[in-house]
Amino acid sequence: METKIYDGTQLVEAAQELKKGNLVAFPTETVYGLGANALLPDSVKQVFTVKGRPQDNPLIVHVASFEQVKAYVDNFHPATEKIVKNFWPGPLTLIFKIKKDSLPSIVTGGLSTAAFRMPDNTKTLEVIRTAGVPIVGPSANTSGKPSPTTAKHVYHDLHGKITGIVDDGATRIGVESTVIDLSDPTADPMILRPGAVTKEALEAVIKKPVTIDRHLVQADETPKAPGMKYKHYSPDTRVLMVENDDWEAAVEWAKDQHFRTGVLAGPTIVENVRESVAATYMYQDDSVTAATKGLFAGLRGLDEKKLALDLIFVQVVPEEGLGIAYMNRLKKAAGQNYFKK
Ligand code: TXA
Ligand code: MG
């Protein structure tokens, strides 16, 4: 099949394809999603097939309004209203207990809960509204690879396998949404996956404590979000994290090993090491925001076969605020491995 690229004037066509049951990738503020009509089990099954995704990993249901969620959920956590008012549309996914059998079990992975998100992208909201149905959307990459932050990345992984891609340029944030569990109305909200909406931002809004799934802190715990346990974000090339004081030693060592080395970092680090390595991918500036936005694109760029790199060194950032989400994805890409002197 020929995969079509839809621009802003072809959103009705994209919506009609989705409604009919075909797969169309869509832009969001975080990463591109692989869309299918959430109410058609056969279409949802296709999503797992084309991504190569394990079927026990449930999908996020994308909606164009909070009203739309009420068709599937009747028992809301008391913090829901404040959270929705402050963070939707936006990079925050909410887990609720759903009305029995209100969504196909292929969507929920057979759980009694489901994940909902209203993405902050006008084209995609228009598509969901026009389709008139909720749209499931995992990240639109081959399972295990870095999530796509441009339509080109989606095309690279999925062309020939899906009907189309709605193109809206590069995504603003660069890592997937924060996932919080609101399924037990009597429990404190719990962050299952870190993203751009931080624990501090949530607590400031609801004025109550927000907890963090223990496995995000302790490596040996089993995560509550099924997807967090899989190998993720990994380029074929070996990735090593480099602490800020170790760049000189890291580059020296790689030279001694006769490695073809790539570097993914902000301008300050890149300027210092550029002469000594085979390839660099520079974040737009030295901020954590720019690093987060460029992480997946950089990993993909440096993983290209034609560069034939042996190794990619990547900058670390402090684990606070948005840095928690950046480091969570980077650690997975690096298999937890740091360069050690
Ligand atoms: O930013 C995002 O969230 C992107 C864009 C496209 O919206 N989507 C995305 O979807 O990252 P995906 O499928 O790659 O990640 C969904 C995560 C997985 O870790 C999954 O296990 C978890 O949400 N999840 C989904 N339903 C759940 C549920 N009922 N209970 C716990 N975790 C759930
Ligand atoms: Mg994903």
UniProtKB/TrEMBL annotation:
GO terms for molecular function: ATP binding; double-stranded RNA binding; L-threonylcarbamoyladenylate synthase; tRNA binding. InterPro entries: DHBP_synth_RibB-like_a/b_dom (IPR017945), Sua5-like_dom (IPR006070), Sua5/YwlC_C (IPR038385), Sua5_C (IPR005145), T(6)A37_SUA5 (IPR010923), TC-AMP_synthase_SUA5 (IPR050156). L-threonine binds at T30, H62, R117, S177. Keywords: ATP-binding, Cytoplasm, Nucleotide-binding, Nucleotidyltransferase, Transferase, tRNA processing. PROSITE patterns: YRDC. Gene3D superfamilies: DHBP synthase, Threonylcarbamoyl-AMP synthase, C-terminal domain. ATP binds at R53, N57, T113, S139, S147, R193, Y233. Belongs to the SUA5 family. This is Threonylcarbamoyl-AMP synthase. It comes from Candidatus Enterococcus wittei.
